[in-house]
Write a structure and sequence with these properties.
Length: 291
């Protein structure tokens, strides 16, 4: 009788052993660095507490860099939602052959996590000054992207288009289950009552999907706003966005201020945290309808 409780106490921790690598990884590479950034944002160079770093976020080109980052995130999230929704709807509702669905979802799972230096290199090799598409248009049609179309991969729209490579697949992965959750009975009931397809989408489907759409937009916004490696590798110092400014502050040269960089990173954490909280809250509301 005395051995049973001890045996249970011994087996209980073993059920959590499989989670230990994940817990250690999250602690070392997410929790501890985040806490270091937050603490550093409120420290002076001598380690004392200060709010000056946050006050300095209003100076120089920092406010404009935040604004440009917000606009890029908003544009890429909006376009990603529109294009991704159209593609997901075409697959879910049979507008394209059924054999397209599995490859599209598989590709979306890979592409939604494809970012950083490889993504930047891919777009530079395609749309850069000597990229494949750039040279093809110039040599065969005499079209110079920057001169004739006003497009440069190192510009606002260049970075936005690059972000769409992982924004659209992420939208497809998230919204496809929501579209599949629309019950056929709802459409049939609307048709019996004399509603057209447009009225069904406007008065039934979109109100149900709206929390999912708005939540996914918030997630895509946070995803773009927090993208650092892609922006640095693609644009370098040619575009004044938060990741570029942050890198300039913490890289350790004479003009850098690591604590100001921590404050900028803290601002990015706050923005992305708010966007993710909105996404989680709206997703919970959407799941109530789709159950």
């Amino acid at each position: 009788m005395n051995q049973a409780p001890s045996a249970r106490r011994f087996r209980l921790p073993l059920t959590w052993v499989g989670l230990m690598p994940f817990v250690i990884f999250v602690t070392m590479f997410l929790i501890l660095p985040t806490m270091h950034i937050i603490i550093g944002a409120f420290q002076a160079s001598d380690g004392s507490f200060t709010l000056q770093n946050l006050i300095d976020l209003q100076n120089g080109t920092i406010p404009s860099s935040y604004w440009i980052s917000v606009k890029i995130s908003f544009a890429s999230a909006g376009l990603g939602c529109i294009i991704g929704f159209a593609m997901a709807a075409a697959v879910v509702f049979g507008a394209v052959p059924s054999w397209v669905k599995s490859p599209l979802l598989t590709f979306s799972g890979v592409a939604s996590n494809f970012a950083g230096v490889p993504l930047a290199f891919a777009f530079l090799a395609t749309f850069g000054p000597v990229g494949l598409v750039t040279l093809f248009l110039r040599n065969n049609f005499g079209i110079v992207l920057q001169r004739d179309l006003g497009f440069s991969i190192l510009s606002f729209w260049g970075l936005t288009v690059t972000y769409l490579f992982f924004q659209i697949p992420l939208m497809i992965l998230i919204i496809a289950p929501a579209l599949e959750g629309l019950k056929k009975e709802w459409r049939e009931a609307a048709e019996v009552l004399g509603a057209t397809a447009t009225q069904y989408w406007r008065m039934v489907a979109f109100p149900i999907l709206f929390p999912s759409l708005l939540g996914t937009f918030a997630l895509l916004f946070a995803n773009a706003f927090g993208a650092v490696a892609t922006a640095i590798a693609l644009t370098g110092s040619s575009l004044n966005i938060v990741p570029i400014q942050l890198y300039a502050q913490i890289r350790g040269d004479v003009l850098g201020n690591p604590n100001l960089g921590y404050a900028m990173a803290f601002g990015m954490i706050v923005v992305t945290a708010i966007a993710n909280i909105i996404y989680i809250w709206l997703r919970i509301r959407a799941e109530r309808w789709l159950k």
